[in-house]
Amino acid sequence: MSIARYSLIAAAVLSITACGKQPTQQAESEPASAAAVAPSDGGDTVKLGHAAPLTGNIAHLGKDNEYGVKMAIDEINEAGGAEIGGKKIKFELVSEDDQADPKTATTVAQRFVDQKVVGVVGHLNSGTTIPASKIYSDAGLPQVSPSATAVAYTAQGFKTTFRVMANDAQQGKVLGEYAVTKLGAKKVAIVDDRTAYGQGLADEFEKAAKASGAEVVKREFTTNQETDFNAILTSIKGAKPDLIFYGGMDAQAAPMKKQAKKLGISAKVMGGDGTQTPEFIKLSGSDSDGMISSSPGMPKEQMPGGQAFLDKFKAKFGTEVQLYAPYCYDSVKVLVEAMKKAGSTEPAKYLPELSKIEYQGVTGNVSFDDKGDLKNGPITIYQVKSGKWEVLEVAGGAAK
Fold it and tell me: Are 48 and 121 in contact (CB under 8 A)?
């Protein structure tokens, strides 16, 4: 496991062989770490933590998140720091690879607590965000997830959990209703990867599709490491659905889409935000055409600060935004804004300000309800046409 560190923190390497929820061989020793920077008002530099899968089959999304966090921190530091409590405070990024694995995520979370980071952006997956959130809650450490959409994350009653995009109850409802009312699906098949995200989104889709009048003719499951879906798809083909919904990530959605076409399945294929990526198109090639996916938030180019962000991101990192980078950027800015309002980087002092924040970010207006969910988050439906994602519809709240 490589541990990306910036500023003065020492680098270290763990030997690992796998990522995701697949059983992994855990490293036997902890990495060396630099002396913790105390989160006191007297320091000039404090640490912010970031956690995501930086290795494995969704590392492209993890690095995208990391870049979004780094971009925000670099901007703050290059401007001389943030004015907090009458002092200029700079931020040091401590970025960890949680391998998309719940057990590793809790280890990372405890490491952040031990290193006295003052806030956390992460994790990427709901399946890692949820178990890590208990550790952050116990430590009183604010956590803003830029991408975990499972309803369960903010339903735990923790005061330290926040997210800057719509949740799966909202996303699943929009997808289920769209499948039936706009795409005309009367019979649907559902597949999920058994992760907190994939299964949770599939459950919400099923509820909405049924409520809109569709019949669920098949409900199957796989894993977030599988690439051969022929058996599942053959079973689904016999049920003759109008639409197949997949709850999971692009690394599985792409081969599933390709194999469905090869088997002669004419049903439309739909997924959530985990599939609405450039990587999906890259992995599935010409077979990507026709795929319908959603993503919380406005289309990136239509976000209030979207186009400028995309241009700066490409210039800085030499690559296009995959998916969640703008939300990671806003997550950092929201944390820092709360610190400014509190006049302190101490979590206990700025946490109350975070819960009542009103911030105009790149992605839109960021404010939270009493659970820590984003208020009035929009959701966009996309379809791949001629190898490019095109907007079909924007539903829900609007970015302001």
Answer: yes
Dihedral sign for Cα atoms in the order 237, 239, 241, 247: negative
pLDDT digits (tens, 9 = 90+) for 363-393: 999 999 999 999 988 999 999 999 999 999 9
**Which CATH superfamily hosts domain 45-166+303-368?**
Response regulator (3.40.50.2300)
Q: What is the model's pTM?
A: 0.83
The three-class DSSP label of residue 351 is helix
| Neighbour-count burial for 195-210, b at 16+ CB within 10 Å, e otherwise | bbbbbbbbbbbbebbe
Q: Helix, strand or coil for residue 156?
A: helix
**Domain segments of the chain as ranges:** 45-166+303-368, 168-296+379-396
Return the DSSP state at 273.
G
In 10 A of CB 211, how many CB atoms?
Answer: 12
CA distance 294 to 62: 19
Task: Supply φ then ψ for residue 339, to 5 degrees.
Answer: -65, -40
In tens, the pLDDT along 237-273 reads 999 999 999 999 999 999 999 999 999 999 999 999 9
- Strand segments, DSSP code E, in the chain are 45-52, 82-84, 87-97, 120-121, 143-145, 161-163, 187-192, 215-221, 243-247, 268-271, 292-296, 359-360, 365-366, 378-385, 388-396
In terms of CATH, what superfamily is 168-296+379-396?
Answer: Response regulator (3.40.50.2300)
Give percent of the chain above pLDDT 90: 87
pLDDT at residue 399 in the model: 38
45-166+303-368 against 168-296+379-396: fold identical: yes
Q: How far apart are CA 354 and CA 334, in angstroms?
A: 7
